[in-house]
Write a structure and sequence with these properties.
The chain is α/β, with parallel strands linked by helices. It has five helices and five strands; from the N terminus they run βαβαβαβαβα. The protein starts with a strand and ends with a helix.
Length: 127
C-alpha cells in the first residue's frame, strides 16, 4: 500500500521544512508549497492527496479561504489548519477538519494527522 500523501502549505520556510521532515520521518509522502496559490495548484494537480496541513496566516489568501477553495474542489480531502494562535474563530474551524496550534507538541500533531488520515481512508473506502 502506498504511503498517504500529505500536502503542507506554509509561508514560513523553517516551519514548512520542519513539518515536511517530521511527516516524512513517519513514512508519509509529503508535497510542500510556500504559499496558498501554489498550494492550491498542487492540490488540484494531484488526485492522491489525502490530507492538507496548512498555515492560517499567509499573504494573499489565508488558510480558511484556501480551505473553502479546496473543499469546493475535493470535499473528501481532510484539511488540518495550523496557526501560532491558540484559538481560531468558530466559523474558521467549521471550514476545516481539524485545528492544531503550531506551538503544541509534535506528538499531538502526529496524532491529529493520523486521526484525519483514518477519516479520509474511511470516507474513500481505502481502509
Amino acid at each position: 500500500m502506498a504511503a498517504p500523501v500529505i500536502l503542507c502549505i506554509d509561508d514560513d520556510p523553517f516551519r514548512l521544512t520542519t513539518l515536511s521532515e517530521v511527516l516524512s520521518a513517519q513514512g508519509y509522502s509529503v508535497l510542500t508549497a510556500p504559499e496558498a496559490k501554489s498550494g492550491l495548484e498542487l492540490f488540484l494537480a494531484h488526485d492522491n492527496i489525502e490530507l492538507v496541513v496548512t498555515d492560517y496566516y499567509m499573504p494573499g489568501k489565508n488558510g480558511a479561504m484556501l480551505a473553502l477553495d479546496m473543499k469546493h474542489a475535493k470535499p473528501w480531502v481532510q484539511i488540518l489548519l495550523i496557526s501560532g494562535t491558540l484559538t481560531m474563530p468558530e466559523f474558521v474551524i467549521a471550514l476545516v477538519d481539524g485545528f492544531h496550534p503550531s506551538g503544541d507538541e509534535t506528538e499531538q500533531l502526529l496524532a491529529k494527522v493520523k486521526e484525519l488520515l483514518h477519516k479520509s481512508q474511511k470516507a474513500t473506502g481505502a481502509a
